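User: Predict the complex.
Assistant: Input components as received:
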Amino acid sequence: MQNFEYQNSTRIVFGKGTIARLEDLVPADARVLFAFGGGSIRKNGVYDEVRAALGKRTVEEFSGIEPNPRFETLMKAVEVVKAKKLDFLLAVGGGSVVDGTKFIAAAARYEGNDPWQILLDAGASVKDAVPLGVVLTLPATGSEMNSTSVVTRGATQDKLHFASPKVLPLFSILDPETTFTLPERQVANGVVDAFVHVVEQYLTYPVGAALQDRQAEGILLTLIEEGPKALAAPKDYNVRANIMWTATQALNGLIGVGVPQDWATHMIGHELTAKYEMDHAVTLAVVLPSLLRKQKATKREKLVQYADRVWGIRTGSEDERIEAGIAKTEEFFRAMGVKTRLSEHNILASDVAQIAAARERHGLPLGEHGDIGRKEIEEILEAAV
Ligand code: NZQ
Ligand code: ZN
C-alpha cells in the first residue's frame, strides 16, 4: 500500500427532514449567499424549506448556476459576494451548484488578478475561501464531501478542475426525499458517475490495499443492485437513501487512499462535455469500456479481480473473463438507460482527432502509468464510435 494522509471534516447530516438543521448549522449572524440552479428546488419544496430554516439571517439569492457551471456565470456571483460583504455560501442543488459555489468561495477571496488562474493551476494558488455548506439534491459527484470543483469556460470550451482543502464543505445535508423529483435521466447519470468514480480509483494495478478494494467492490455492488430499483420504484425511500450515501462514499477520498488512481476516463469525458455539451455521466459511459479494453495489459490483474468479485465471472480464459466483465459494465450502463457509443450521440470517427487535440492542450499524458497520450486517446475514442 502507498503512504497516505487522510482528513475529511465535512459534517454529514443525513435523512428525512434534515434541511431544518440549517438553522443551527449556518452561523446565526451569517450574511448568506443562497446559490442554486435553474429552479428545480422551487418546484419540489426545497427552496421553501431552506428559506424557512435560514430565518431572519441576511440572505442574497443567486440562481441560474447551470449544469457544467460556467465561469462567466460564477463571476457574477463573486461580484455579489464582494458587494454585499457576504461571509457564508450555501449551495442547494446538484454537483454543478456545489462545484460552482466552491469556485465562488475561492474566487471571492482570491488575491491574484484573474480567478481563472485557479483552474489553470488546479487550485495551487487558492490561499483562502469563504466558508460554505451544502444541501444536496442529486446524488452523483461526491462534491458534497470532497474538495474538488469542475468549471467550464464557455468562450474557450475549457472544462477544468481545481481542488483545495479551503473549499471542502463545512457540512452537507443529504435528505434522500429531495431526490424524488429527479428525472430518470439524472438518476441514471448519478449512478453511472458514482460507478465510474469507483472504477477510476480501483481498476488500476494491485498494491495490496485489501480494505480499499473491498470497499470499492461494495460500492459497485450496491450501485448495481440499487440503481435499477431507483428507476423501477422512484418513490422508495430506502433505495434513494442507499444511492445517496453510496454516491458520497464513491468520491469522498476514502477508497482512494494508498492506491494508484487513473482518472483518464474523466479527463477525456470533460473534453466531450466541453465540445458537445454531453452530460458528464454520458461521456463516462462511452469512454470507460473502450479505455478498459485498450488498457487491458496494464490493468490485467485488477480487471480479472473485478470480473470475479463484482460480476461473478469465474470461468473461461483470463482474456474471456476480462472481456465479459467489461461487457457486463456496458450492459449495466445501458440498463440504466445511458448509451455507450459515440455514434449514438452523432459523434463520428472523423471528430476524434479534434477531441484528442483539445485534451492535449489541457495536459497529457493520462492514466495511472502516464501512458495515455494523444494517439492512445484517438484509438480509445475510435473504438468507442
Ligand atoms: O438546475 P436545476 O434546476 O436545479 O436542475 C438540475 C440540473 O438541470 C437537476 N436537478 C438537480 N436536483 C434535482 C434536479 N431536478 C429535479 N429534482 C432534483 N432534486 O439536475 C440537472 C443536473 O444537475 P447537475 O448538478 O449538473 O448534475 P450533477 O450532480 O451530475 O453534476 C455534474 C457536474 O459535476 C461535475 C461534472 O463535471 C459536472 O460539471 N463533477 C464534479 C465532481 C467533483 N466536484 O468532485 C466530480 C465529478 O466527476 C464531476 O466531474
Ligand atoms: Zn464524475
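The first strand starts at residue 11 and ends at 14.
Let me know if you want any component modeled separately.
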